[in-house]
Amino acid sequence: MKRHHNSELDTASTSKTTTQKTKRDEEGGLQPQPKRQTTLSEIIDKKSLYVDDDIRAKDITLTIAEQICVDMEPFDLVNKIGFQRLIKKLCPKYKMVSRFHITEKVIPEMYQRVRAKVLELLKTCRIL
């Protein structure tokens, strides 16, 4: 292509680089942004998994436990390949917890919170 259509190639390559990222200037026009190489620390951050006490990991784990309880799914759901693939696709940084962690830690804590809330609501109810 370069040998026969050199001018079209130059036009196409310059338009590709100028339309990738843009920024508005003071007059409201769009200004091309130069490409920036990803740093090594950004690449490592993308690949690293959430630590166990990360708020996002805890939130995802709690949501999985809620789904198990609400839909009456078996605890073994977290060991199934399809479910693990779904979670990995939705949140690549999340490290899937074990069935044991769900049954021995997350669900009992959830049960205690719900039980306390129900008891609190029952105390405020009036008997007719």
TrEMBL record:
Cellular location(s): Nucleus
Residue segments, region Disordered: 1-37
GO MF annotation list: zinc ion binding
Record key words, sorted: Metal-binding, Nucleus, Zinc, Zinc-finger
InterPro entries: ZnF_BED_domain_contain
The UniProt record lists the keyword Ribosomal protein: no
Protein name, per record: Zinc finger BED domain-containing protein 4
